[in-house]
Design goal:
Layout (H helix, E strand, L loop, with lengths): L1 H13 L21 H4 L8 E15 L8 E11 L9 H14 L1 E2 L1 H13 L8 E15 L7 E15 L2 E8 L8 H19 L7 H11 L8
Length: about 230
């Protein structure tokens, strides 16, 4: 049974292909695709204030005491598109500039200004004259304990940089969120002391105080945030 099957298989492999059934060639798969950016013309030609990329993740090096490693940053970067006849920017050029910056430069106003100037120069063929960049990251810092000697912990501070470049000038705005909360007994005692002083300043000269007036004052002023040190 095995020898017979083998003979049939050899006969089938040796038989020539049948006439009348030629192979189809998919020539349409090799046709070039149209470049719509070059061939199509929009009915509404307008300039754009900003065109670019958002949420690009890169490591950024800081000249900050105690920060030995790059921080994980998110970057938005754009240039303007003033010429209505230009249909788009070259995002790969912006990405390459940002990638080289993250690899070789330390974050500072000077290096950031040089990066944004290069962003504009990379799009002179698009008639761009302005650049904008937003950079955000969490700065992780070690902070000592308030009382216990030799004990410290880590605290994260969200940092955001908003920068624009125009006519050879860098405008930079930096913000940081410093979040504080405390419920320790020392903080509660300070809060009560501050509340006592505020109440005395408000009602101390009165021999009689209307309870409803006191209730209203307490509802509006009975909580004072007092960070301890």
């Amino acid at each position: 049974m095995t020898a017979r099957c083998a003979a049939v298989n050899r006969q089938h492999q040796a038989s020539p292909p049948r006439r009348g059934s030629p192979k189809r060639r998919l020539t349409h798969m090799n046709n070039p695709l149209p470049d719509v950016a070059l061939t199509e013309v929009s009915s509404a030609l307008v300039s754009l204030d900003w065109v670019g990329m958002q949420g690009v993740e890169v490591p950024v090096r800081l000249a900050e005491a105690g920060v030995r490693y790059p921080v994980h940053a998110h970057v938005d970067l754009q240039v303007d598109l003033a010429d209505p006849s230009v249909k788009g920017i070259h995002m790969s050029r912006l990405y390459r500039l940002l990638d080289r910056y993250a690899e070789h430069q330390i974050l500072s106003p000077d290096t950031l200004g040089a990066l944004m100037e290069a962003m504009v120069e990379s799009h002179l063929d698009c008639h761009s004259s302005r650049a904008r960049l937003t950079l955000s990251f969490n700065l992780l810092c070690r902070r000592p304990a308030l009382i216990t000697e030799g004990l410290s912990g880590w605290k994260s501070y969200p940092v955001k940089l908003d920068a624009t470049w125009h006519a050879g000038r860098l405008c930079l705005d930096v913000s940081a969120d410093i979040i504080y909360s405390s419920t320790c007994p020392c903080s509660a005692a300070l809060s009560r002391q501050l509340l006592e002083g505020a109440f005395t300043a408000r009602f101390g000269r009165q021999s009689f105080v209307d309870p409803m007036l006191v209730a209203t004052w307490l509802r509006e002023n009975a909580s004072f945030a007092t960070p301890h040190s």
